[in-house]
Design a protein that fits this description.
By secondary structure, the protein is an all-alpha fold. It has 30 helices and no strands. The protein has helices spanning 2-8, 15-20, 24-39, 50-57, 66-74, 89-101, 108-134, 137-149, 154-158, 163-183, 191-205, 214-225, 231-259, 279-298, 320-338, 344-357, 379-391, 397-420, 425-435, 440-453, 458-472, 483-498, 508-538, 550-562, 566-579, 585-596, 600-614, 618-629, 646-665, 672-681. Helix 3 (24-39) runs parallel beside helix 8, helix 7 (108-134) runs antiparallel to helix 8 and helix 23 packs antiparallel against helix 24.
Length: 684
């Protein structure tokens, strides 16, 4: 008897209702059509946000070779640039498939098509899940249709880097369905389904870390539907939990291998101010963010790709929005737990939403961002299933069907409008800054996008960057970011250049404005360097390349030069060289500064350093010969001699030794040309 009760408690699509349901492929085609109606205009979109860097700058996805596949497995997600501790080789491999196998190259259309198809597969999985929970094809279809077109999913579907969300969701949904089907058959095999579950879970967690919720979702399924009441039922589930646990263990080992030699990531306060907040203010604010998440699931109108500092201020004890969020969350959880046996579907839905939101909620531990709509991709599936389940409890099912179908159409229209805004960083930031006007990142992104459009947008770029800096300027240096003031200084400098020569009365004030804000940026940058070094030592990491925005020091030196402050220009250039000696623009400005100070001999040494960094390119060597020709005491150095020329030997040794010291200060291995020059000229 217990054995039969265990099977009966499992929600399934059976009987007359199942027989009356439309064919599965008809339903799937209908769901795919709804998803297409929501996202058909995504195929012509460009590259926005991180998609541009991953598609155009990751050399691993250019060609299918053993070396590239090894790099995908052995390196982190952002390689070769340092970044957060993210490891997503399956996602990177999918981009390789797009780029090299399908031949998409850097053209965005192919990537958008694959994202859409992955979303379509996920919609089918949601339908299968809803069918098991709601037991009727009609409500299940509408639940999946609502999720297919839900505007909150736009970021995950139309942003190419949202592929990690799509793949992780596929693992979680597919793994849960696989588990539910396997355990409902008490006499069926377990070895093959458990092995398949291990593969599905492994693929998911190697696509995105959020897929690690699968074991929790399996446990939630058991708690919701009373399966496992017998000892045999519990024992049957052990292989599946072991398989999911093995996948997580494999991820742990891989991450240890990949990140053991990398620097500790530098988290930015502007991205998530909860990291530096006290324990209770951070958690209280996280609860307020969860309330906003639930609001957007119900009313996906005011969407934004970014809500960083200071769009969501820290919540205090008297924050009414935090209290409202707490009351709603507590009420939903209490009702779900209290009615668990009478209403298992609602218990499951509440648990699913909570479990899939928890890893990114900042409640357990702070993550890299305070909030992201992409985090709602999977929770939205449970939300639409719960919505359909509750709606069909009303006494007029035909009216409910019409209402939910109309809501799906409204969702599709809203998603379609939102999709257009993801065409580029410019279109996205222009739209989102209206929704999140206190976000530093949005104003900064909009200003940068306008600046890249050309001089005709320079004034607008300055205006937006001033808004970004106005929000961030109140922060102490150790909590701020040097990018908003540095970008503002660059735009001020561009304005000065556009107005004419430095002697022009109209341009000089702009150089002075640029210099003032760049000095603030330098103060923040120096504080960030110290913080980075402290973090590396605290976590037992070696001190590696310095994380500095190099254009800050280039623009700082440029402003000093145009204001006639040559000594300070050289100081800024030397510091920039010590950050990254490979940036050859520093040497050109150093030569200009030395010439302006009446030291053409030192200008020659700067040009020789550039030649060593570049590997003695013809243009650099020609510049050196020209510089020597202008020196009254160049002697044999002006005649292109070899190491026997004492003047040239002394200059080259000075250049090589200074450059070697710069590489040491930058924590980088010196270029091979430096060692070769020291050996050739006998430098000591």
């Amino acid at each position: 008897m217990k054995h039969r009760r265990e099977r009966k408690s499992e929600p399934r699509v059976e009987g007359a209702a199942a027989k009356r349901a439309p064919g599965k492929w008809t339903i799937r085609a209908g769901l795919l059509a709804i998803a297409f109606a929501a996202y058909f205009n995504s195929f012509g979109l460009g590259l926005a946000q991180d998609s541009f860097a991953l598609i155009t700058q990751d050399a691993r996805i250019r060609e299918v070779t053993g070396a590239n596949l090894a790099l995908i497995v052995q390196k982190d997600y952002w390689w070769p640039k340092p970044g957060d501790h993210l490891y997503r080789p399956v996602t990177t491999a999918s981009l390789l498939f797009n780029y090299a196998v399908l031949g998409a190259g850097a053209s965005p259309a192919g990537y958008h098509w694959v994202n859409f198809l992955l979303h379509g597969l996920n919609v089918w999985l949601v339908y299968e899940l809803a069918s098991r929970l709601l037991r009727r094809a009609g409500p299940a279809f509408l639940a999946a249709a609502l999720w297919a077109a839900h505007p909150i999913n736009t970021e995950s579907v139309v942003n190419i880097v949202g592929r990690s969300d799509l793949l992780a969701a596929m693992s979680a949904l597919g793994g849960l369905l696989l588990y539910a089907r396997a355990v409902e058959r008490p006499d069926g095999p377990t070895a093959a389904p458990a092995a398949l579950l291990f593969a599905v879970c492994t693929a998911g967690v190697f696509s995105k870390e959020s897929a690690a919720v699968l074991p929790g979702l399996m446990l939630l399924w058991d708690l919701s539907f009373g399966i496992g009441e017998t000892r045999a039922g519990v024992a049957r589930r052990v292989p599946f939990y072991a398989a999911a646990g093995a996948a997580l263990a494999l991820l742990f080992v891989a991450r240890r291998f990949v990140f053991s030699g990398l620097p500790w990531p530098q988290f930015v306060h502007l991205d998530n101010p909860l990291r530096e907040a006290g324990f209770w203010p951070a958690r209280w604010t996280a609860i307020k963010v969860l309330g906003l998440d639930l609001w957007l699931l119900a009313f996906p109108l005011q969407l934004s790709s970014d809500r960083s500092y200071n769009q969501i201020p820290l919540a205090g004890a008297a924050d009414p929005f935090a209290w409202i969020a707490f009351a709603v969350i507590a009420g939903v959880l209490w009702a779900a737990v209290a009615r668990r046996r009478r209403d298992p579907v609602m218990f499951w839905a509440a648990g699913f939403i909570g479990m899939t939101l928890l890893p990114t909620s900042n409640l357990v531990a702070p993550i890299g961002t305070i909030m992201g709509e992409r985090f709602l991709y999977l929770p939205a599936a449970a939300f639409t299933i719960a919505l359909a389940a509750l709606a069909y409890r009303l006494e007029r099912p035909q009216a409910v069907t019409i209402a939910l179908a109309a809501l799906a159409m409204i969702y599709a229209v809203r998603a379609n409008a939102r999709t257009r805004e993801w065409n580029s960083n410019l279109t996205l930031a222009e739209a989102d800054v209206q929704t999140a006007p206190q976000s530093v990142r949005l104003h900064d992104t909009l200003a940068k996008s306008l600046f890249e459009q050309g001089e005709h947008n320079l004034d607008r770029a300055i205006e937006e960057q001033e808004k970004a800096w106005a929000i961030a300027s109140a922060l102490p240096p150790e909590l701020s970011s040097d990018l908003p003031p540095a970008h503002l200084g660059i735009y001020y400098g561009a304005k000065a250049t556009a107005l004419g020569s430095p002697a022009n009365e109209r341009s000089r004030p702009w150089y002075e404005k640029s210099l003032a804000v760049l000095l603030r940026a330098r103060e923040i940058s120096l504080a960030a360097e110290k913080s980075f070094d402290r973090a590396q030592r605290a976590h037992g990491k070696p001190l590696t390349a310095r994380p500095v925005f190099k254009l800050l020091y280039f623009q700082l030196a440029y402003d000093y030069l145009n204001l006639g402050r040559y000594g300070e220009a050289l100081e800024a250039l030397r510091y920039g060289r010590s950050v990254d000696p490979r940036q050859t623009d520093f040497y050109d400005l150093m030569a200009v500064a030395h010439q302006s100070m009446g030291r053409p001999d030192l200008a020659v040494i700067a040009l020789e350093q550039k030649a060593l960094v570049e590997g003695h390119q013809p243009a650099a060597m020609a510049a050196i010969r020209e510089a020597y020709a202008k020196l009254p005491d160049a002697g044999c150095a002006a005649l292109e001699p070899g190491p026997e020329c004492a003047r040239l030997r002394n200059d080259m040794c000075r250049a090589a030794l200074e450059l070697q010291q710069a590489y040491a200060e930058a924590r980088m291995p010196a270029a091979d040309e430096v060692a070769a020059a020291k050996q050739r000229y006998g430098c000591r």
